[in-house]
Amino acid sequence: MTSRLRPDSYARQTLERYTGSSLEDFGAYILLCNFRRYVDAFSQQSGAAVQSANWHVVHDTKRSISLINFGVGSPSAGIVMHCLSYLDRVECVLMLGMCGGIDDSLEVGDLLIPTASVRDEGTSRHYLPQDVPAQPSFWINRVSEEVIARAQGRLPKSGIMITTDFRMWEFDREFIDYLLDHRILAVDMEIATLFAVGYALNVPVGAIMLISDLPLRKGGIKDKQHAAEIFEKYTGLHLDLGVQTLAEIARRNHISKKQRSKCQW
Q1: H helices then E strands: how many in the chain?
Q2: How many whole angstroms separate alpha carbon 234 and alpha carbon 109?
Q3: Does residue 261 have a pLDDT over 80?
Q4: Looking at residue 24, what DSSP letter applies?
Q5: How far is CA 183 from CA 43, 105, 122, 224, in A?
Q6: Cα–Cα nearest to 162, from 140, 150, 177, 152
Q7: Pick from 181, 206, 192, 208: which is nearest to 132 by CA?
Q8: Which of 64, 129, 233, 238 is deepest in the core (most CB within 10 A)?
Q9: Domain at 113, CATH number
Q10: CA distance linking residue 212 with residue 101, whole number of Å
């Protein structure tokens, strides 16, 4: 029997159920993350409460920013992007993620703006043919780079990542050889899905990634102690740069809308 529930209604209800929020709570600018630490930090920064269900979310109504911790992995990334695509007010989505650095030029704590990500996961194929690359909205990339350069006095790294659902790839020689042969900069589990679904459903999306470990170097795999140190040292900076990027995008959007309004006269 065919369900009478429409896709748009189902997606909106899913977003409400997974976040414990109403649709009216969501801002025009969305931050995504994988970690509760970011949620708590954003709650403290904004003074807004954490709302919890399957996911954790904080809505900063003053700045029209909602931060969502959607968990880990490609399926969750696909769900959150699909649901957000049915919110008419969403202007853009920015992922604050962590990734394993592969390229020799990278160090823990470096910021990376991905220009594309290889689709080695199982979700994005439901939205795009496999030969379509997973790329972000380049205007979000440009603003992210400008904000980071202004804050840190230097441009972040940029290049191609790979998104995989192979969680223990660090111990697989064939996979490692693929990374090296294709000059992959870093590895994560969500970015290609976010980019592909965003492109398919017309949701502008970008990412500011933090290099959290260097798995191919001796002692470089992130363990429990190292993960705690990364959160302590970099969460505040990473979050601040994400908020600054969305604020700059909002400022430019406001100017653009004012200019279009004048042209109508």
Answers
A1: 7, 9
A2: 7
A3: no
A4: G
A5: 38, 12, 22, 28
A6: 177
A7: 192
A8: 238
A9: 3.40.50.1580
A10: 7
Q: What is the pTM of this model?
A: 0.94
CB 202 within 8 A of CB 208: no
SS3 content of the chain, % helix, strand, coil (to 5): 45, 20, 35
Do the Cβ atoms of 101 and 110 come closer than 8 Å? yes
**Residue recorded with tokens 């042969």:** 181
Residue 56 CA to residue 49 CA, distance in Å, equals 10
Query: Which pair of tokens denotes residue 170?
Result: 């660090």
- For β-strands 186-188 and 92-101, DSSP reports them as antiparallel
Q: Which residue has the tokens 């399926």?
A: 75
The number of domains in the chain is: 1
pLDDT in tens, 101-112: 999 999 999 999
Q: Is 181 exposed, middle or buried (0-12, 13-18, 19+ CB in 10 A)?
A: exposed
Residue numbers of the domain that contains 98: 7-246
What value does the mean pLDDT of the chain take? 94
- Whether 213 maps to a domain, the answer reads yes
Which residue's structure tokens are 């990027």?
A: 245
Query: Which residues lie closer than 8 Å to 54 by C-beta, 6 or more apart?
Result: 17, 18, 19, 71
Per-residue confidence (pLDDT) for residue 2, from 0 to 100? 54
CA 19, 22, 25, 29 dihedral sign is: positive
The answer to whether residue 261 sits within a structural domain is no
Nearest CA-CA partner of 56 in 71, 76, 44: 71
Compute φ and ψ for 161, nearest 5 degrees. -105, 180
State the sign of the Cα–Cα–Cα–Cα dihedral 246, 209, 80, 184: positive
